[in-house]
Structures are given as structure tokens and as C-alpha cells.
Specification:
single chain, 473 residues, alpha/beta, TIM Barrel, M1 Pyruvate Kinase, Domain 3, Pyruvate Kinase, Chain: A, domain 1, 3 domains, eight-stranded parallel β-barrel, six-stranded mixed sheet, 16 helices, 22% strand, elongated
Length: 473
């Protein structure tokens, strides 16, 4: 099965999409990557869905990526004696270290590390920003605040701290248990939540090694201060607009999204745009026009992938949501303006052999009208560098490693296939031509452009560019 588009779709699995028939239908409708949200569900639930995805992968004969999304250090308040309170603008409200149930004057905050960094003049946002508190003072035992806007508050609502870098580990004890389980399953990508600094990614890398690729979720303003460094140490980035849209003024989120996109393109790292993309399709069979434009804008901007969350996990219309996203992407990529915009955003190649070869590859495919850009890769590096160039011709990636093929399912323009290792240039050209015909990219008389690294099988050695014509059998 070949997708007739280059941007990819990430679909979250959940109660609405837990059986094999639905998951296979989601793949056939357009899902390229399945996200397992470890904020919900048991390990048994994720094990069952993992086994189903791998069964679907075998049925359809295409590599499918699985993304394990760790919950991360989500901050929450304690409980209330009556379960819920009403706060009035202007009143004082205290968050403290007393674990007894709260009331309209105070509530327990079970995160001692927060008391170390909170200071007067900062803000606290509760329940996804519905309640804003202005910090008056903090004495290490309690945080005294003034309510900025009236609202109700119930047990265990989330706390966002937009004005401080929090001294909390990137991985909680729950995350470490979930990470161990996900790696034992064999997932392809690990998503790290609430990344604030490059050290958060490096801490996870020490545990993960090369068993999975790391996708860093940017959802805190503090991450923007070290954006370049975070992108460099990550394998991919997600613009997680949920918490990011809480901690930043909403009007700033579009500009921040474009900034992150630009930095990812500079470094050749895949980027996923997520959260509320087709939110209304949780309960409606059709999206709003604004949601359609939001998805389209991300594609015009050159995003590698767009993601569905509750729309496919717990909504009433998971299949229509994936199909709608597929149609939006396809329509955008048919627009002549799309390629013009990609060309306008094109980044200069980095000063290394791989970028030089892939930059030439982009020009060659355009000049000769190549039907496919064929990349030979062991680690995925060559295909990633080719995707950074956003060539007009689709990228047919050939790898001997199933794990590499699965990880590349997230990457713009890449159609990944499994093949035996080639040993010389002649074998490479023959296999490239045969694969291009078999996968439906080319026919007799067409030309393809091939890039690889020599010696074959050595990671990060992209240094060869070859043109070939498909001959009749």
C-alpha cells in the first residue's frame, strides 16, 4: 500500500479504537503511526493494542510505527472536603504542604519542589488555565496567591507554572516503569512530556539507548529558551499545543509553532503538530472550517506529521477523523502553492557530506523529473537527510532493518521498505530499480535518483549519488 501524500498522520489509540478491525481500518484510512498514551490505560491494555498493531502490520505488509507517549511530571492539586469549590476574583487562596482536604481558602499542593522556585509576582494556572492565580508570597511551606479570575475548582486539577523552570526530573517513577515496559514491548518511538531542557532528553537517552527514537514534546515556555539545544539532542519534536497553549497567551502559540518548525527544518528533525486539530470530530462527523484550516496550515508550513488525540482514541468518529485528515493533507499537497511554499522555506544544507549529497539529490530529481528518490539506509540517517530537503519526488527508503523502516513511518515523504543488504553499487542499482517498480513509483523508461553511503551498512556515511533508468524486463 502506497500513500498518495507525503505528510504523515499519527492516530492515538484508546477505547474507541481498541479492536483489530478498527485499528486496521484506521491504517487503511490513513494512519501511519499509532500513539499509545500512557497517561491512560493499563499495561495490559497497551500490550493488547501492541499485538494488534503488529498483526495489522503483517496483514497489510507495511511497516507501522508505534509511539509510546509517557505521562511526564504532571502537577496536580490535592482534594477538597466537598469535592469542589468556587473561587472569586480578588480573594486570597493558599496552596500549602498540608495534605488534609482543602476548602475555599486553601488546598494541598503535593509537589514540594514547587515551593523552592515560586516567588511573588509569578502566576499559577489551574485546570488548564481556567483559574489564574497571582503569587503574593511563598515561605517554603505555603504559596499565598490572589485569584485573578473567578471560577470553580475540583479535586486533583492540573497546575501549570509558566514563569519558572521547575526542578523536577523529566521522568517520574511511573514514567520509568512505563518506559521499561514500552521498550520491552518493542515500541519505535518514545515521547517525553514536559521537556524543559536538553538534559531532560539526555537523561532519557541514557535509559533508552538505541532501542527507540526519542520525540520531545514542547509544552512549556521554558523549553523555548533552549529550543535549539533540545532539537539537536532529540530525534523528533512535537508541538504539544495543549499545555503550551495554557502557559502561553493563545495569540503567541501560532508564532511559536512556526518558530519550532523552522528550527526543526534547519536541523533535519521530524516535527509533529498536535492537539485540538480536529477537536470537534470527537462528537461531530465533520470538522469546523477553522480546524480544517489549522491542519492545512501545518502542512503548508512543512510539518512531517499531524496528530489526532481524543478524536481517534475516545471520540464517536475515529475513522472519519483519520479519513478527513488524509483528505486535507492530500488536497494541500496537490496545490501548486504547496511546493512553492516548501521551496521558499528551504534551508541551506549543513556543511557535511550527507547534506551536500542530499541537496544535490533534490536538484537532480527536479531537473531530470525523477519519479523517485531512492535512499539506502541502515540507521535511517540518509532518508532523514533526504526528507530535510523536501524533494518533489517521493522518497523510497530501502533498509535491511525492520526497526529503521518502522521509525521512518513518521518522516515526511518517506515510503520505507525492507530489503536484504546490498554489497556493491551494481546490486544497489538493480535493487533500487526493482523496488521502485514493485512499489509503484516507476515504470520502464522512468528515471530514479539513488543515494547511499559507502561502505554499505555504515551509519552516517552518505556519500554517493547515482542516476538510473528503469529498463523493460
Amino acid at each position: 500500500m502506497r500513500r498518495q501524500r507525503k505528510a504523515k498522520i499519527v492516530a492515538t489509540l484508546g477505547p474507541a479504537s481498541a479492536d483489530q478491525k478498527t485499528i486496521q481500518a484506521l491504517f487503511e484510512a490513513g494512519a501511519d503511526v499509532f500513539r499509545f498514551n500512557f497517561s491512560h490505560g493499563s499495561h495490559a491494555d497497551h500490550q493488547e493494542r501492541y499485538d494488534i498493531v503488529r498483526a495489522v502490520e503483517k496483514n497489510v505488509g507495511r511497516p507501522i510505527a508505534i509511539l509510546a507517549d509517557l505521562q511526564g511530571p504532571k502537577l496536580r492539586i490535592g482534594t477538597f472536603a466537598d469535592g469542589k469549590i468556587a473561587l472569586q476574583a480578588g480573594q486570597e487562596f493558599t496552596l500549602d504542604r498540608d495534605n488534609t482536604p482543602g476548602n475555599a481558602q486553601r488546598v494541598y499542593l503535593p509537589h514540594p519542589e514547587l515551593f523552592e522556585v515560586i516567588a511573588g509576582g509569578q502566576s499559577l494556572l489551574l485546570d488548564d488555565g481556567k483559574v489564574r492565580l497571582e503569587v503574593l508570597a511563598c515561605d517554603g511551606q505555603s504559596i499565598r496567591t490572589r485569584v485573578v479570575n473567578s471560577g470553580s475548582l475540583s479535586d486533583r486539577k492540573g497546575v501549570n507554572v509558566p514563569d519558572a523552570v521547575l526542578p523536577i526530573p523529566a521522568l517520574t517513577e511511573k514514567d520509568k516503569r512505563d518506559l521499561k515496559f514500552a521498550l520491552e514491548l518493542g515500541v519505535d518511538w518514545i515521547a517525553l512530556s514536559f521537556v524543559q531542557r536538553p538534559e531532560d532528553v539526555l537523561e532519557a537517552r541514557a535509559l533508552i539507548g538505541d532501542r527507540a527514537s526519542i520525540l520531545s514534546k514542547l509544552e512549556k515556555p521554558a523549553a523555548l529558551e533552549q529550543l535549539d539545544a533540545i532539537v539537536q539532542v532529540s530525534d523528533a519534536i512535537m508541538v504539544a499545543r495543549g499545555d503550551l497553549g495554557v502557559e502561553l497567551p493563545p495569540e503567541r502559540v501560532p508564532g511559536v509553532q512556526k518558530r519550532i518548525l523552522r528550527v526543526c527544518r534547519q536541523h533535519g528533525k521530524p516535527i509533529v503538530i498536535a492537539t485540538q486539530m480536529l477537536e470537534s470530530m470527537i462528537t461531530s462527523p465533520v470538522p469546523t472550517r477553522a480546524e480544517t484550516s489549522d491542519v492545512a496550515s501545518a502542512i503548508y508550513d512543512g510539518a512531517d506529521a499531524v496528530m489526532l488525540s481524543a478524536e481517534s482514541a475516545s471520540g464517536a468518529y475515529p475513522l472519519p477523523a483519520v479519513a478527513m485528515m488524509d483528505r486535507i493533507i492530500t488536497e494541500v499537497e496537490r496545490d501548486p502553492l504547496y511546493q512553492n511554499m516548501l521551496d521558499a522555506q528551504h534551508e541551506s544544507p549543513l556543511p557535511n557530506r550527507g547534506d551536500a549529497i542530499c541537496s544535490a539529490l533534490r536538484d537532480v530529481t527536479r531537473i531530470i523529473g525523477a519519479k523517485a528518490t531512492v535512499t539506502y539506509t541502515s540507521s535511517g540517517h540518509t532518508s532523514l537527510r533526504a526528507a530535510r530537503e523536501r524533494p518533489m519526488a517521493p522518497i523510497l527508503s530501502i533498509t535491511p532493518k525492520l526497526s529503521t523502516a518502522r521509525r521512518l513511518a513518521l518522516v515526511w515523504g518517506v515510503h520505507s521498505t525492507i530489503s536484504d543488504q546490498v554489497h556493491n553499487e551494481s546490486e544497489m542499482v538493480t535493487a533500487a530499480c526493482q523496488t521502485a517498480v514493485k512499489e509503484g513509483f516507476a515504470k520502464a523508461g522512468d528515471q530514479i535518483a539513488i543515494t547511499a553511503g559507502m561502505p554499505f551498512g555504515q551509519s552516517g556515511s552518505t556519500n554517493l549519488l547515482r542516476l538510473a533508468e528503469i529498463w523493460p524486463e
